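FORM 12-B: Structure-to-Sequence Request
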């Protein structure tokens, strides 16, 4: 049986995908009387249309009117934006440690970011090799309903800079993980590489690192990065990736 709690859960899922600004737009369009099909079509990112439809379905089934629903959506958007404005930044390192300066280890932080995701997870990497802690964490994330996107470089895109297996094979067999890449024909500058390495969970946590998604990158090499919790950076990073997907700069593998 659908209850008001079902609506609040669905609203939380939509908020995690759309962010506060776009959920306010959704509330405005609902108030303006947009039909369900148009509301769903306006959410173009991976998993967004389905999440919006689930929200609309629970609203109807629970007997919640449009006006209180839009008030609620605007309220949680404001609360979410206020919470995200509180930002914490920490350094993250791979490789040897020192007793004098304790630091967070890349391997542990990367796994924690994946484990923290409840709705949406975006990873980007240049090189990748099968790394069991990441594979296990991704499998668990998909199992709890997280929409997982991984953007990887390809051998063709990297030219001779990467050898061996395709980086995407590091995620082979992980059902529910969407793989994306930057096609060479979309690269306007000769020799351009997909060189970013990041992990973003629910648009609230962002790890930016020099480490690739490999065991060496996470544990052996000296790699440096920052972990950002709160603020606008996690949301902006994911929005940028989603816009690259929407415009066709990034395409599905």
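FORM 12-B RESPONSE
SEQUENCE OUT:
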């Amino acid at each position: 049986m659908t209850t008001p709690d079902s609506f609040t859960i669905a609203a939380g899922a939509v908020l995690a995908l759309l962010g506060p600004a776009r959920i306010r737009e959704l509330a405005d369009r609902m108030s303006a009387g947009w039909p369900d099909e148009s509301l769903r079509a306006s959410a173009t990112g991976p998993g967004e249309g389905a999440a919006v439809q689930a929200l609309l379905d629970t609203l109807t089934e629970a007997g919640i009117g449009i006006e209180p629903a839009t008030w609620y959506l605007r309220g949680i958007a404001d609360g979410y934006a206020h919470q995200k404005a509180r930002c914490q930044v920490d350094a993250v390192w791979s490789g040897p440690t020192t007793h004098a300066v304790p630091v967070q280890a890349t391997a542990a932080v990367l796994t924690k970011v994946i484990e923290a995701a409840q709705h949406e997870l975006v990873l980007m990497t240049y090189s990748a090799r099968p790394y069991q802690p990441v594979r296990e964490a991704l499998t668990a994330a998909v199992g709890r309903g997280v929409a997982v996107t991984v953007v990887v470089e390809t051998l063709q895109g990297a030219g001779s800079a990467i050898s061996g297996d395709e980086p995407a094979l590091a995620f082979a067999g992980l059902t529910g993980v969407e793989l994306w890449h930057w096609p060479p024909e979309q690269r306007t500058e000769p020799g351009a590489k997909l060189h970013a390495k990041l992990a973003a969970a629910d648009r609230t946590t962002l790890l930016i690192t020099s480490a690739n998604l490999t065991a060496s990158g996470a544990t052996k090499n000296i790699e440096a990065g920052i972990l950002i919790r709160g603020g606008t950076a996690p949301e902006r990073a994911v929005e940028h990736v989603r816009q690259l997907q929407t415009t066709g700069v990034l395409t599905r593998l």
